[in-house]
Design brief:
With 438 residues, this protein is an alpha+beta fold. It has 5 helices and 20 strands. Pfam families: YknX_C.
Length: 438
């Protein structure tokens, strides 16, 4: 049976639905930087804390010992280096001729002259005296030559020593420079070691990185793990065990009961998790067929499984570009929304949700306040064309139309028909061209 209605003007809104999860503005898992024991806990689950507030202290003698050793090594590396003293000059003792040698020579020449003086022949006597004078002169010359030889030797030796001293000094200077460079590199490493060890010791005092709410130990694995656990719980015992083994181990992290004063901890253990709930968000998974319609600022509404009968406002703040495969095999994209206040049907205020809660969001991707509108049942898809059957002079007339916003019951027509015209709104898929219509 064919039913006909008139094209009207009406508001049309196109809404896309997607599953979502409530999230927090920020979450930080605070871990211990070294092994030790929990010396003191200052907070409990659910406590509100402020940025910089001390949450826990860890006692770690090992970390303190490492800092002490690093400081000792740095102190040793800061001591000046030297290549050591090297003697670079030689002093030869002066040549000393014994005084007895000169006296003995003088006595010898005196006796020789006395003996020559007793010779009667004057000519011979004169020859003897000349020979003695020549010998004495030669002795004096030899004595002076010996002194000059000794002085020359001293000068030569000191010249050689001076040359060697210059070479040794150059070598020592290069050695000292090399040792200084090595010391600078060593000092740089020891300073880094001291800073790293001090950061570790400072990190033993765990402080809140921002205002938030405390959870002792690691945060829960979130909605994804909860959903997996629920699915496994619905399987038979043997299949659930196999599926759990295939899924792998759950994320590590100490439970709240494992965090207490005096409990031993290992480096990397989560002691406290701080969650900033001052601004709540929604993480939605929008199907690939709809995500191109979603933009920053797109308005939305959210309904939470935990708050029946309440509706929360939301606004899109970001659209991701990394796809992921959904549970049914389709592809979806992450969309982030800012979550606003919620109200019940009677307009009373709804409670603030908690991170991890499940929700369904309805994003208003297109809307027209005064659109040319027809019922959705009037639209027929024919190949790549979208058509409606208009009624003209009692006959069916095929019209190709362009759609705008597509609501659940009403569709916006951008071109093809005009307000006031009549179209087939029921049984449109059975109508043929020029068919007589009532």
């Amino acid at each position: 049976m064919v039913q006909i209605a008139q094209v009207t003007r009406a508001p049309v809104s196109e809404v896309v639905e997607a599953p979502a999860t409530v999230g927090a503005r920020a979450t930080a898992a605070l871990t211990t930087p070294a092994s030790g024991t929990i010396a003191k806990l200052y907070v409990e689950d659910g406590d509100s804390v402020e940025k910089g507030e001390i949450l826990a202290r860890i006692r770690s003698p090992q970390a303190q010992d490492q800092l002490d050793e690093a400081r000792k090594a740095d102190k040793q590396a800061s001591k000046p280096v030297s290549a050591g003293g090297v003697r670079t000059s030689v002093s030869l003792p002066p040549l000393r001729i014994p005084a007895s040698y000169d006296a003995q020579a003088a006595r010898y020449f005196a006796r020789a002259r006395k003996a020559a003086g007793q010779v009667g022949d004057r000519a011979i006597k004169a020859q003897l005296m000349a020979a003695i004078d020549a010998a004495q002169a030669q002795q004096k010359a030899q004595r002076r030559a010996l002194g000059e030889v000794a002085a020359g030797l001293s000068r030569s030796v000191n010249q050689v020593v001076s040359q060697v001293s210059g070479q040794v000094g150059t070598s020592l200077s290069g050695l000292t420079a090399s040792m200084s460079s090595l010391q600078a590199a060593s000092r740089s490493q020891t300073r880094v070691a001291v800073k790293a060890a001090k950061r570790t010791v400072d990190g033993l005092v765990i402080r809140a990185p921002f205002d938030g709410v405390v959870t002792l130990g690691g945060a829960s694995s979130g909605a994804g793990a909860a959903g997996l656990g629920g699915l496994l719980g619905q399987l038979p015992a043997d299949l659930a065990g196999q599926a759990g083994a295939a899924a792998g181990p759950t994320p590590s992290g100490r439970s709240a009961g494992a965090v207490a004063t005096g409990v031993p901890v290992s480096a990397g253990d989560t002691i406290v998790t701080v969650t900033d709930v001052s601004e709540l968000t929604l993480s939605a998974d929008v199907d690939e067929t709809d995500v191109l319609l979603v933009q920053d600022g797109t308005p939305a509404e959210a309904e939470l499984d935990a708050v029946t009968g309440a509706t929360y406002t939301a606004t899109v703040t970001g659209v991701g570009v990394t796809p992921k495969e959904g549970a049914t095999g389709g592809v979806s994209y992450p969309v982030r929304l800012r979550l606003g206040a919620g109200v019940y049907d009677d307009q009373s205020s709804a409670p603030d949700p908690k991170p991890g809660m499940s929700a369904v969001v309805r994003l208003t991707v297109r809307q027209a306040a005064d659109a040319t509108a027809v019922p959705a049942s009037a639209i027929v898809t024919s190949g790549r064309e979208t058509i409606v059957w208009a009624v003209r002079d009692g006959k069916a007339e095929r019209r190709v139309v362009k759609l705008g916003a597509q609501g659940e019951s009403t569709v916006q027509i951008l071109s093809g028909v005009s307000p006031g015209e009549r179209v087939v709104v029921k049984g449109a898929d059975t109508v043929r061209q020029a068919q007589t219509l009532p």
